[in-house]
Amino acid sequence: MDSFQNRVFAIVKKIPRGRVLTYQQVAAKLDNKNLARAVGNALNKNRDSKVPCHRVVRSDGRVGRFNRGAKQKELLLAKEGVKIKNSEIVF
């Protein structure tokens, strides 16, 4: 695993249960908000259950993709108390 992925995973591990960050917010924590797509690509390769990549969502409020399927992502988020309606986060 490269250092970029390690940095992304370290940030995502800090997202508390029941909270979400956008891909762009994770990228901003890496000091470059333009790396949002790269953050998504790094998370797509995640196979470590200790990295809660389901807590990273799209900037437009939609849940987005997940390596185990978008429906599974919605179920995990809902189980943690995140409100979702029509595949969108309710803020």
From TrEMBL:
<dbReference type="InterPro" id="IPR036217">
    <property type="entry name" value="MethylDNA_cys_MeTrfase_DNAb"/>
</dbReference>
<feature type="domain" description="Methylated-DNA-[protein]-cysteine S-methyltransferase DNA binding">
    <location>
        <begin position="3"/>
        <end position="82"/>
    </location>
</feature>
<protein>
    <submittedName>
        <fullName>6-O-methylguanine DNA methyltransferase</fullName>
    </submittedName>
</protein>
<dbReference type="GO" id="GO:0003908">
    <property type="term" value="F:methylated-DNA-[protein]-cysteine S-methyltransferase activity"/>
</dbReference>
<keyword id="KW-0234">DNA repair</keyword>
<keyword id="KW-0227">DNA damage</keyword>
<dbReference type="Pfam" id="PF01035">
    <property type="entry name" value="DNA_binding_1"/>
</dbReference>
<keyword id="KW-0808">Transferase</keyword>
<dbReference type="InterPro" id="IPR036388">
    <property type="entry name" value="WH-like_DNA-bd_sf"/>
</dbReference>
<dbReference type="InterPro" id="IPR001497">
    <property type="entry name" value="MethylDNA_cys_MeTrfase_AS"/>
</dbReference>
<dbReference type="GO" id="GO:0006281">
    <property type="term" value="P:DNA repair"/>
</dbReference>
<dbReference type="InterPro" id="IPR014048">
    <property type="entry name" value="MethylDNA_cys_MeTrfase_DNA-bd"/>
</dbReference>
<keyword id="KW-0489">Methyltransferase</keyword>
<dbReference type="GO" id="GO:0032259">
    <property type="term" value="P:methylation"/>
</dbReference>
